[in-house]
Design a protein that fits this description.
Radius of gyration: 16 Å
Structural class: alpha/beta
Helix content: 25-40%
Oligomer: single chain
Strand content: 15-25%
Order of helices and strands: HEEHEHEHEEEH
Distance between the termini: 11 Å
Low-confidence stretches: none
Shape: globular
């Protein structure tokens, strides 16, 4: 949000926690699992960025269901562009038991995006780290990038 607001974009932040929204962004409180709340947040926008995060412990749709809401509402509202933070686990054919459900949830998100009419991009970092951006990172199209994490600032860029 800081990067977008700093670059002069008209930012509407849809959040459960208003204290995490940066100054200069319009705040709409809600939960992405509520399709009506998502519709209110997306109304009048020309692009959507999702950075949904939930702890995944065991079988769940706590991430993929809200993502599907965002995609379906965006399509219905005529929004064409969507960027979604996924995870690099979508590129792994085998993961340990600890990450199996995480991978399943991100694969469901990827399939939702692929099945949509949106112009979308999935950002799939290995790990998202706090700290300053370096301005130096690797972007790979349709493939697995080198390991390591990326700062929130560099991911935003």
């Amino acid at each position: 949000m800081e990067r977008a607001v700093g670059r002069g974009h008209d930012v509407r932040a849809f959040a459960r926690a208003p204290e995490r929204v940066v100054e200069g962004a319009e705040i709409v409180l809600g939960d992405a699992s509520d399709a009506d709340a998502v519709a209110a947040a997306i109304s009048g926008r020309d692009a959507v960025i999702t950075a949904l995060g939930v702890p995944i412990e065991g079988p769940t749709t706590a991430l993929s269901r809200p993502t599907a809401n965002v995609v379906h509402v965006a399509e219905a509202a005529g929004v064409r562009r969507l960027s979604a933070v996924l995870s690099m686990v979508v590129f792994l054919s085998k993961v340990g038991e600890r990450f199996a459900e995480n991978r399943n949830e991100h694969l469901r998100n990827l399939e939702t995006l692929r099945g949509s009419a949106l112009e979308w991009v999935g950002l799939c970092p290995n790990a998202i780290e706090d700290g300053p951006g370096s301005g130096s990172y690797v972007a790979v199209v349709d493939g697995k990038a080198p390991g390591g994490g990326i700062s929130r600032v560099d991911l935003a860029d």
